[in-house]
Amino acid sequence: MYIDLLTQIKNAQAVKKESIKVPYTKNDERILEILASRKYIAAYDKKGRAPKRVLSIDLKYGEDGKGAIEGIRFVSRPSLHIYKGCDEIRPVKSGFGLAVISTPKGIMTGGQARKEKVGGEIFFEIW
């Protein structure tokens, strides 16, 4: 689940790890694709075969040694799902952050959802 994925990334950055491995899921792969395109992680790679497939994630750090991810706020949880329409999706941290949303067209960022005029469940915000 994406909550475990992001928590592992945040914890690994706190102890300055170079890379981590997490179990493979399609949703996690799509979330990592978004994070890599927005430079929150350096890269990711899918390894292994079907039953034991893993995602290898290379973490990214700034010149000062801090992790690229400063904060994460989980909006939806397994016990509480938050849905927003396309006109209710707002920029995160005045445009310096990113909201990840599950829509009928797949998992995408808040900006993409507004452009395509689709709403959905807001997974998390990251900055």
From TrEMBL:
Gene3D superfamilies: 3.30.1370.30, 3.30.1490.10. InterPro entries: Ribosomal_uS8, Ribosomal_uS8_CS, Ribosomal_uS8_sf. GO terms for cellular component: cytoplasm; ribonucleoprotein complex; ribosome. The keyword Membrane does not apply. It comes from the Bacteria. GO terms for molecular function: structural constituent of ribosome. Keywords: Ribonucleoprotein, Ribosomal protein. One of its GO terms (biological process) is translation. The keyword Disulfide bond does not apply. Belongs to the universal ribosomal protein uS8 family. PANTHER family: 40S RIBOSOMAL PROTEIN S15A. This is Small ribosomal subunit protein uS8. It comes from Candidatus Wolfebacteria bacterium GW2011_GWC2_39_22.
